[in-house]
Specification:
Protein name: Pimeloyl-ACP methyl ester carboxylesterase
Number of helices: 13
Number of domains: 1
Structural class: alpha/beta
Distance between the termini: 32 Å
CATH superfamily: Alpha/Beta hydrolase fold, catalytic domain
GO molecular function: monoacylglycerol lipase activity
Number of strands: 9
Pfam family, one: Abhydrolase_6
Largest sheet: 9 strands, mixed
Low-confidence stretches: 1-23, 356-367
Mean pLDDT: 86
InterPro entries: AB_hydrolase_1 (IPR000073), AB_hydrolase_fold (IPR029058), AB_hydrolase_sf (IPR050266)
Strand content: 5-15%
GO cellular component, one term: membrane
Strand order of the largest sheet: 1-2-4-3-5-6-7-8-9
């Protein structure tokens, strides 16, 4: 048998394995509210079983949709709870601007309200401040992930950060830009401008040394918001840390490089830090180029379903209809999974090796 035919046979077998696993992928999204005083956190969940649960905390202005690609990858390891916080994603906010500490208390209340024991808590952007504040006070949290930590104290100025954000945004996929813009519209300029000073002035560097949890820090190569020197400083301040940089990625590294980020998170959870690595920054080898067209091949029906689901999700959010929101999110997840499965079949037909993901299996092997 020729090498080409052997390769094609391997591709077909891999495609069959992917198809079998895809049939078990949980695309069902549930939505619930965890109340704390007069406020509540909206919790979007996929999966019910697994080794350990994940709690995902987004950044300023955006919604849990930012984790739409990361969540199903992590779900191969455990249930995933992506949070929408007051003032963002249509969740009502109080009359006063919430501080980072108040947001952290709400995340803690959500963890307790869900009955979670030692979840892996993942924060992105301003979410890293929220997670850091919570982890510094709760020693029952043993595993934390900070993606694109902010704010670099050497650049704690609004105009500077706006420029850094623009630099990073240049390298973001179009899908991320769409998610960000739509989320900012829903958040509104008024609430965003009230929370921005809280984020800008929060001294995350003062809280990092008090975090006892094993902490994974991830940045994208082109993330000007979380520059390399600042991330190394974060590693120095943390008592137990691992630092990784993703080639080709920007601030929202967990979207275009969801599979790689998920693998880092799972490996981090499975292998406690024996000794602090300090400022050592690892570079992820063999990362994808972040081109979503290489992972997804939506049909016209998939596209229509996804667009319709997104519109219904917006309407349900504005109406406060959690049941309709869960249905819309589930339909969107199913359309994404169908597009992924189709792309893997196309790769197999072309004799190329299909991807192992976006869904992954837990492994103890080093990447």
């Amino acid at each position: 048998m020729s090498p080409r035919r052997r390769h094609a046979g391997s591709a077909r077998r891999a495609a069959a394995r992917d198809a079998a696993r895809a049939s078990d992928v949980d695309t069902n999204v549930t939505v619930r509210r965890i109340e704390s005083g007069d406020l509540y956190v909206r919790v979007n969940t996929i999966g019910e079983t697994g080794e350990r649960p994940f709690v995902l905390v987004p950044g300023i202005g955006v919604s849990s949709d930012y984790f739409e690609r990361l969540a199903p990858n992590l779900n191969e390891f455990g249930p995933v709870h992506a949070l929408d916080l007051p003032g963002f994603a249509g969740v009502p906010h109080p009359g006063h601007a919430l501080t980072i500490r108040e947001y952290a208390d709400l995340v803690g209340a959500a963890i307790d309200g869900l009955g979670l024991t030692d979840p892996i808590v993942v924060g992105h952007s301003m979410g890293t401040q929220i997670v850091a504040d919570l982890a510094a006070r709760r020693r029952d949290l043993s595993t934390v992930v900070l993606i694109g930590p902010v704010i670099n104290p050497a650049e704690r100025h609004v105009l500077t950060q706006a420029w850094r954000f623009a630099q990073a945004a240049w390298h973001e996929p179009g899908r991320v830009k769409f998610l960000a813009l739509s989320a900012y519209v829903l958040c509104g300029v008024r609430w965003f401008s009230r929370i921005l000073p809280k984020m800008m002035t929060y001294p995350i560097e003062d809280h990092l040394p008090r975090i006892t949890a094993d902490t994974l820090v991830i940045r994208g190569e082109h993330d000007a918001v979380a520059p390399r020197d600042w991330v190394r400083r974060v590693g120095e301040l943390l008592p137990a840390s691992r630092l990784w940089e993703m080639p080709g990625a920007a601030h929202s590294v967990m979207h275009a490089h969801a599979e790689e980020v998920a693998k880092l998170c799972v490996e981090h959870a499975q292998q406690p830090i024996a000794s602090d690595e300090g400022a050592e920054l690892h570079h992820y080898e063999h990362a994808s180029d972040g081109d979503e067209s290489d992972d997804f091949s939506p049909s016209a029906a998939d596209f229509v379903t996804a667009v319709g689901a997104r519109l219904r999700s917006t309407v349900a959010t504005l109406r406060g209809d959690d049941a309709a929101l869960a249905k819309a999110k589930t339909d969107h997840a199913e359309s994404m999974q169908a597009a992924f499965d189709r792309r893997q079949a196309e790769k197999a037909a072309a004799g190329d090796e299909p991807d192992d993901g976006p869904h992954i299996e837990p492994t103890d092997a080093r990447l």
